[in-house]
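Regression check, uridine-5'-diphosphate case 490:
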Amino acid sequence: DSKPYQLHVLFLPYMAPGHMIPMVDMARLFARRGVKATIISTPLNAPVFSKAVERDGQQGHDISIRIIKFPSAEAGLPEGCENLSCINSWDMHANFLKAMSMLQQPIEQILEECHPHCLVADMTFTWATEVADKLRIPRLYFNGTCCFSMCVLDSLLRYEPHRRVDSDFEPFIVPGLPDQIKTTRQQLAEYLKQTTEHEFTKMVNQISESEARSYGVLVNSFHELEPAYCEHYRKVMGRKAWHIGPLSLYNRNIEDKAERGNTASIGKHECLRWLDLKKPNSVLYICFGSLLDFPAAQLREIALALEASGQNFIWVVRKGELRNHEDKEEWLPEGFERRMEGKGLIIRGWAPQLLILDHKAVGGFMTHCGWNSTLEAVTAGVPLVTWPLYAEQFDNEKLITDVLKIGIGVGALEWSRYAKKILVRKDDIEKAIVQLMVGEEAEEIRNRARELQEMARNAMEEGGSSYSDLTALLEELRALETSKRESAAH
Ligand code: UDP
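Current build output:
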């Protein structure tokens, strides 16, 4: 069949904000480039991005959402728990993964029915490569992080240097990488250190296998940010990768930016008017992503550090985090908000992060080094106070502080998820904040961040590296489909 056809790509995002947000941006970007894009989602996740998708549709882009049921009850989760952001323990986390695995059958059914030309699936869908093979279509893998962290993980799994040190605190070099990247066993994910067939360890191995067998990897990053690692991934690890970010830049109008990952409209965000009253680069923005639950005692240390630092701030505290201590407000030192009036603002719930980072009053971002937050800061030219906690965040921190040199660490030592203890003390937090916001070194760091901002924006413009990588990928997908049609015709 030599008739012209439209490339159809099906997108399968993981139900966690840090994975769903960039993949939805990606689907929208593909649609803008002429692809028919279908996103699979669930009843309670879809509303978070359906308005943006609708607006794209009105502009003539071919994009739609297919809703499937999420088996919360069947997997032992509370009713309405369809997103990782409702999860606060390892046990619930395991049930969430069980629910994810139960999605295979309904998704396979949709795939067979609409037979797309390509499947873009998040890393958590470990069965996706196999299913795509059955349909004879390429599966592209997405894990939401940078090339740097993928290279670090590969070296750790390949050489297991952590098994050759005597203590959890002894620094060692991750072998085989372009830079001398040092870490400790304490900073490695629990599931990497397990020797037994631990549930999460098994999962990591399955993920890494399905990545290796996939057609290639889509990376939300840009070549100029980590050139040596893009090279390493392609040449040394021998895998295909396309750098097509920063994907957040796809959001150009104010509604898109405000609603990204959220159903609230822009009218709700008085924090932007508050920022208008502040001097350039004078406000520190603090947010630890969409999943973290700090205990009350740790939140207090942060509050005390903010007050002592003397800096203006916007601090986002998650609703899930507050659930345990909201009524008593025991997480805030006595009279804190009264004393901080005009100086600091606490947002309880979801913040319009892209708009805050883009505001000229914001001069620093204290982050857990989630990859989206990191890249959004780079894209806005904002330097970072780094406080990694779990997932691959310690790797991302090393990219920020040691390779790119656009941040100062609070000195986080220990990988920790669902922990209930104080991890970093007030004095260390305060010291890092002041070092990033004030003085000569701060100015140098800010200048480097600005240079990267410029490169990030150029990468996404027509002719830029990310734009061209996506062009190359779309051409390759079309060529694959065309040759399939030709061989079927003969
Ligand atoms: N985010 C936001 N407002 C919030 C918290 C998070 O817009 O109050 C967005 C943030 O801009 C980013 C994503 O949620 O796009 C968080 O992803 P990241 O990889 O930084 O961290 P994770 O939540 O996966 O730990």
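Comparison notes: Residues 17-18, 21, 260-261, 287, 289-291, 316, 350-351, 353, 370-373, 376 surround uridine-5'-diphosphate (CB under 6 Å). The chain has a mean pLDDT of 94. No diff flagged against the previous build.
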